[in-house]
Amino acid sequence: MHILTGLLLSKLFTGSGKPRRFKGFRGIVEIKHAIPGRVRYYIPTLKMNMEKGQMLEQQLQKAAAIKQIKVNTLLGTVIVLYDPGKIDEVTLTGVLARLLGLDKELEKTPRSLIGKEVSQVLKSANSSIYEQTDGWLDLNSAITVTFLSLGLWSIVRRPSILPAGISLLYWAYNNSLKAP
Q: What class does CATH assign to 18-107?
């Protein structure tokens, strides 16, 4: 059953049976268009940065596999004409990232757009609760107090309610450990 579920999920996420092309690294070094021998990148750190653009051109022109490079710092794009027999898109993407010092950015765990938005909503709720209670509560302590109250109420009044009062007390305890 697990194998069948895995196959169905892989089919769902990969689409048809076609292999997916390497698209670079979203928001860092993205491949916008590629055909063998020519690739266009979007690199946000190059926007309005003439020094990095010139450095990148100078460094890549030294490589034998690179035929031509054109950097547009206004748009943050790079077009590279290369010999596909000597280098491929994936390697070229890595070289660009390395030359521009984007290694640390690639190592960071990416956050989804929804994850960022949820984080902002929680920060806003935290600030609002803190301001409304004149600093007595923040979101984390409000959640902890809620779990603690429900846990005690569940143990005393209604021990059959799920989740059990002990679980709520445990959640309150764990949540209190996360407080800064």
A: alpha beta
